[in-house]
Automatic annotation (TrEMBL):
This is Helix-turn-helix transcriptional regulator. PROSITE patterns: HTH_CROC1. Residues 11-65 form the HTH cro/C1-type domain. The lineage of its organism: Bacteria, Bacillati, Actinomycetota, Actinomycetes, Pseudonocardiales. SMART domains: HTH_XRE. It holds the Pfam family HTH_3. It comes from Prauserella endophytica. Gene3D superfamilies: lambda repressor-like DNA-binding domains (1.10.260.40). It comes from the Bacteria. Residues 102-137 are annotated as: Disordered.
Amino acid sequence: MGDDQKFPAYLRSQLDRHRWSPADLSRASGLSASLISRWLHGETTPGVENARAVARAITRPLLEVLVAAGQLTPDEAGQKANHVDLSSLTDDDLLAEVRRRLHSADPAPTRADVVSDPGDFVEGPPRQQLRKTRRKG
């Protein structure tokens, strides 16, 4: 992922984590919706003061937001680059990431794609014979 898309991806994952729209982040942070939209489209990234407002709103460390925004390197922030200790994530964080990945992936097959005729899995006489038997009995 290019550096120009790092912050938009980070911000989208945080919106997913909170189940927020950009408007929700705007209200929670006190920042304009148009500014948040520019961040999500990779047009610009937040400076320190706006990163602080975002960090407070999404309840994440300021250094994490600054690194995601490219204002600091992971070394400058004392963070390890590209390593996430999964045990440190909350269940909600993990579920938000799974939702994000599933949402962006190819659609899952439907039951109709997998099972052409549910009667195919019934042992015994074919479905039409079962119907005839039930009517007689």
